[in-house]
Specification:
The chain is of the alpha/beta class and about 425 residues long. The strands form three sheets. It has a seven-stranded mixed β-sheet, with helices on both faces. Strands 1-2-3-13 form a four-stranded mixed β-sheet. The protein binds pyridoxal-5'-phosphate. Pyridoxal-5'-phosphate binds next to α8.
């Protein structure tokens, strides 16, 4: 392996400083990249055998120059497209000024970001974090503290209601209330205080509420669960129930938020405004991890110095990127674009002539194509890759189509044509209609 030999001969650290990491990475073959990752990386992912070495817009290239259309969009984090010029400009500009200071001090970029995010979300206050899981943990802490200090729940008795097939991240607390056994086995014991009920079941929800219930936490569309859309009216019914019962409504909009579903936030489909909301993914403009808990002053205002924190949460560089990401979404009507392209894609997918497609579900550019039990989904994944489409199935045999919202109209059409050709190459002779 050339790269390894160079490292040994000339010294890896010196090479990194002399050439720069990007140049060194270009010298590494795709095979060597896979080898190093498998040897030195923990095996908590099972990547497709594609070494993404360059990306722009909705396209990704491997080291050998093969081109793919990115239909995962970094699990919905890539709304703006890879290397969005506006976001890159913001990074470069900010890099010449100040990047990370910690929240031991005030900073003007962070101030503008907090104001901008609260304004964009039409809520009062934000607690900035980095990953989605941290934003969820922040919401859970806020809800518990609100429960004890405002609602008057006895100490250590707070209950939070969540839903089957939820996905809110990977911390011990969060996987503790997952219903996916694979996410929890060998990681217990788990945090108490959570009740799990069926998604979309209002009666079960009413029955689960007690005087100690402080919050309901839900995704308005369960994305990782298989792009599951609740029954019409459910979001608004949950909102009304929370108001009647003095329970906080927390929407996890980490995947559905920021225009992915064709509105700024998925709760807007039923005007079910939350008390607290977890946001992340595209807030980082496809460049950095930026997340936040955003909510009313009554809820977010319960934190006092020392209650919570994160060294990198709310740093000037992340703030500049996030504020630019919000401005791009607003000025260029990402919500309208996502709604229009999503409706077009869903119509085209529904017209595809395969009996094995059980259902096409989606709102905006959050789309799932569920295939029936007869289909070898691994074969489909590889056929998609061979046809230059990068995507994977979520749980329950559903392939996700979540490309960057900025994907060009004709590139989306090309992706859909290739998707059909890939399905045809596997399904031929097993029920494909002519
Ligand atoms: C709805 C939802 N919540 C939370 C998370 C966790 O976000 P992160 O991976 O940034 O921790 C995800 C990630 O896919 C998600 O889809």
């Amino acid at each position: 392996m050339n790269f390894m030999a160079t490292c040994q001969e000339q010294g890896m650290w010196a090479q990194i400083l002399e050439k720069g990491v990007a140049a060194l990475a270009d010298e590494l073959s795709d095979e060597a990249s896979v080898h190093l990752s498998e040897k030195f990386g923990s095996r908590n992912y099972k990547p497709l055998p594609v070494n993404a070495s360059r990306a722009e817009g909705a396209r990704i290239w491997d080291g050998a120059g093969n081109e793919y259309i990115d239909c995962i969009g970094a699990y919905s984090a890539m709304a703006h497209g890879h290397l969005s010029p506006a976001i890159v400009r913001a990074v470069v500009q900010q890099m010449e000024k100040v990047t990370v200071t910690s929240r031991a001090f005030y900073n003007s970029e962070v101030a503008l970001f907090l104001h901008g995010l609260a304004t964009y979300c039409d809520l009062d206050m934000c607690c900035p974090m980095n990953s989605g899981a941290e934003a969820i943990e922040t919401c859970l802490k806020l809800a518990r503290k609100w429960g004890y200090t405002v609602k008057g729940v006895p100490q250590n008795q707070a209950e939070i209601i969540v839903f089957e097939d939820n996905f809110h991240g990977r911390t011990i607390t969060v996987v503790g209330f997952s219903t996916e056994e694979g996410y929890k086995t060998n990681f217990g014991p788990f945090t108490p205080g959570f009740k799990v009920i069926p998604f979309g079941d209002l009666d079960a929800l009413k029955a689960a509420i007690t005087p100690n219930t402080v919050a309901i936490l839900a995704e308005p569309i369960q994305a990782e669960g298989g792009i599951l859309i609740p029954p019409d009216g459910f979001l608004q019914q949950v909102r009304q129930l929370c108001t009647e019962e003095n329970v906080l409504l927390i929407w996890d909009e980490i995947q559905t938020g920021f225009c992915r579903t064709g509105k700024k936030f998925a709760w807007q489909y039923e005007d079910a405004k939350p008390d607290l909301m977890a946001v992340g993914k595209p807030l980082g403009g496809g460049i950095l991890p930026v997340s936040a808990a955003v909510g009313t002053a009554e809820v977010v205002g319960v934190f006092r110095p020392g209650d919570h924190g994160s060294t990198f949460g709310g740093n000037p560089l992340g703030a500049a990127v996030a504020l630019t990401a919000l401005a791009e979404m607003e000025v260029n009507d990402y919500a309208g674009r996502s709604a229009r392209l999503g409706a077009h894609a869903v119509a085209k997918l529904r017209a595809m002539p395969f009996d094995e497609i059980k259902e096409v579900r989606g709102r905006g550019l959050l789309i799932g194509v569920e295939l029936d039990e007869s289909v070898d989904t691994n074969a489909i994944t590889h056929a998609l890759m061979d046809h230059g489409i990068l995507t994977k199935q979520t749980r329950h045999r559903t392939f996700r189509l979540t490309p960057p919202i900025t994907i060009e109209d004709d590139l989306l059409d090309e992706a859909l044509d290739r998707f059909e050709q890939a399905l045809a190459s596997v399904l031929q002779g097993t029920g494909a209609k002519a």
